[in-house]
Each structure stands twice: as C-alpha cells, then as structure tokens.
Amino acid sequence: MVKEIMKDPLFLALKSEPATEADKQIVKDLLDTLRANLDRCVGMAANMIGVRKCIIVVASGPFQFAMVNPVITRKVKPFKTEEGCLSLTGKRPCTRYEEIEVDYLDADFQPKHGKYTGWTAQIIQHEIDHCNGILI
After folding, report:
1. Taking the CA atoms of the chain, what radius of gyration do you get in angstroms?
2. I need a labelling partner for 61 at 20 to 30 A (CA). Which of 33, 43, 122, 134 fits?
3. What's the pTM?
4. Where is 97: in which H helix or E strand?
5. Among 60, 48, 67, which Cα is nearest to 2's?
6. Quick one: pLDDT at residue 135?
7. What range does the domain containing 39 cover?
8. Cα atoms found within 13 Å of the Cα of residue 131, Cβ hemisphere only
9. What's the number of CA atoms in the CB half-sphere (13 Å) around residue 42?
C-alpha cells in the first residue's frame, strides 16, 4: 500500500528499532511507496512512511530492493557531496563513501552481504542514516 511521506523532522530524528519478520508488510508498503515516487525519489527508509523500523528500500536502475536491519561493515574513499530528501526541503552537504559493504536481511528475512559502489552506495548510506535518526 502506498503511504503518505512523513515530513516531521522531530519524528525523523528518532532512531529506528530493529525489524522482525512480523514487519514484512512494512517492507511491502515501503517498496510500494518508493515505486509510486520513482519520479522524484531513489530510496526510502521506513520512518519516511511513519514507521520506526530499520528497513530501507533502494532504486538501482530498473530494480528496487529492500534491506532490513542494514549495517555498513566497510567504507572506502570518502567524498563530500550535497543531497536532497523527499522528507526535507532543499539540499544539504554531507560526507559519503564511494564503496561500502553491508550486512542485511533481504525482503524474505534471509541474511545477505553486499558490496556497493557509486550512486547505489550513496543512496544506501543516506537511507541507513535515516534509520539512525541522522538527517542530512
């Protein structure tokens, strides 16, 4: 189900709780909401639809995928950039890494490890910041 986008910075600044298999519907709702906003959004975290669970979704090319309880385990090549956010107005400066490795659960709650670079890595970092209550 497509959900409304949360814009309250006080809510968005709260740290998310770990997701469990009982949260599978949130994964589906988050993917539906991302797909409904692909014209203006490349990633979302569950708190952006009003749910404080550590779930993110990412659009990479023609694909959209979920990461549940993602943890960055490796960061390489920091760089400075500016980012916008569907939940916030304007752009803000931040530091990102060109290469990352992430441990997470997929949409079926199976453990995964991924290596990401470039734009996809940047999206994942932005959304994991959301889970940690960090706003750009």
Report:
1. 14
2. 134
3. 0.96
4. strand 88-105
5. 48
6. 87
7. 9-131
8. 23
9. 13
Task: Look up the CATH number of the domain holding residue 101.
Answer: 3.90.45.10
Name the residues annotated as catalytic.
127
Q: Which residue has the tokens 């060109």?
A: 98
Question: How far apart are the C-alpha atoms of 101 and 75, rounded to whole Å?
Answer: 7
Q: How far apart are CA 18 and CA 54, in angstroms?
A: 5
Q: Is the dihedral of CA 62, 76, 108, 44 positive or negative?
A: negative
**Beta-bridge mates of residue 113:** 103
Number of structural domains in the chain: 1
Asked if 52 and 46 count as a contact pair (C-beta separation under 8 A), the reply is yes
pLDDT in tens for each of the 136 residues of the chain?
Answer: 999 999 999 999 999 999 999 999 999 999 999 999 999 999 999 999 999 999 999 999 899 999 999 999 999 999 999 999 888 888 999 999 999 999 999 999 999 999 999 999 999 999 999 999 998 8
